[in-house]
């Protein structure tokens, strides 16, 4: 019989087909076994009767453990009440590999327990919904840039320097060449790409040795980073707005079923898909926070609590621009009209999800950038190539980075970022 995936059953009503999958659950009524089979694309109830199977085969289906792998053959029937809308009337089945004592029962378990068996937890319905939404977000990111003729520009993961400060670098010995570091961001290389191709993006794993155990921090996360020659901060913000609203529309359109499994209220996502997004200065952000009674003063960086309080004031992402330069990385261009602030932007997601995007315009003057590197106590030598970009045809340029896991946590409405990636890496977790 032809092998079909559960998600394709609609096209095979009335036909006899074979499903290949795993036993998710089963019930029995004495004369009938209900085998709930999953194959990664969906779930299908397979109805096996003693009359159809014969005594021996029927009895063997009685002892199947959860996650036993099997092939089930039968006729596809439409049934509105069945999960997924289709059922299989079983004519035969073959056990591939029996499983006994599967540790995850269809009941509630604690997160710590589940994280320890993450390799199995990813088989469950909620985790499927989250990781499918992640897949859609990633595909949307790539399509957005590809459609706009950005060139994918893969940047190295092993690097000789830091990009986002030296306090959270993963360091290693690199043969006879001294220290190397896991990249914190592909940005510096993407800048070289932008000056070569005009508009590029990089998209890869990035690393931060974060000593913070918050629900927003991973030590390994994926970042998508566009970089565009001739762009200033205003154009960069417009790109970020177009980008995020595109991703939201795409997920709402294509992953409605998964959002439903997660019981995600989609009204806030629909609002967040609407443009324009508000743009406020850091100065205004501080005033708003003070008015709300938070103890902040000009010059402070905004932490998770401040971001949550600010984002609560808007029904869509808000872009906060022109932070004090002292809070930000060495490469940020200062506002010529106000050198104490940087031409940077953070996009804060609504519903308390905080910063999902950080970016801005880059310092494009050779001497100024060189002075900043020294000010930040970074070694000049490994930045020579980066300074070259300001020597040979320097132009204004800007870009940003969006953390995929932050975006997915928000879109899925998750309390913690750890479920947005198949195998999360955090300060207190390296396994499985
Ligand atoms: O604001 P960040 O540090 O900016 C940069 O790395 C720039 N070089 C990006 C650029 O302009 N090309 O990080 C960008 C985004 C954050 O807004 C957040 O979404 C995510 O990366 N991020 C993290 N996500 C999970 N865990 C962490 N520890 C993260 N740190 C940053
Ligand atoms: Mg940031």
Descriptive tags:
binds magnesium ion, 5-stranded mixed β-barrel, single chain, 8-stranded mixed beta sheet, 18 strands, alpha+beta, elongated, binds 4-amino-1,4-dioxobutan-2-aminium adenosine-5'-monophosphate, 432 residues
Structure description:
- This protein is of the alpha+beta class.
- The chain has 14 helices and 18 strands.
- The strands form four sheets. An eight-stranded mixed β-sheet has the order 6-10-11-18-17-16-13-12, with helices on both faces.
- The chain is elongated.
DSSP helix count? 14
Distance between the termini: 38 Å
Question: Which strand order spans the largest sheet, edge to edge or round the barrel?
Answer: 6-10-11-18-17-16-13-12
Backbone shape: elongated
Amount of beta strand: 25-35%
In a few lines, what is going on in this structure?
The protein is of the alpha+beta class.
SSE topology:
Elements: E1 16-28, E2 32-38, E3 43-49, H1 50-53, H2 55-60, E4 69-78, E5 86-97, H3 111-116, H4 118-121, H5 125-147, E6 151-152, E7 158-159, E8 171-173, E9 179-182, H6 187-197, E10 199-207, E11 220-229, H7 233-254, H8 256-261, H9 267-272, E12 279-281, H10 282-291, H11 304-311, E13 318-321, E14 334-335, E15 338-342, E16 344-349, E17 354-361, H12 366-375, H13 384-388, E18 397-403, H14 404-412
Parallel strand pairs: 3-5, 6-10, 12-13
Antiparallel strand pairs: 1-2, 1-4, 2-3, 4-5, 7-9, 8-9, 10-11, 11-18, 13-16, 14-15, 16-17, 17-18
Helix pairs in contact: 5-7, 5-14
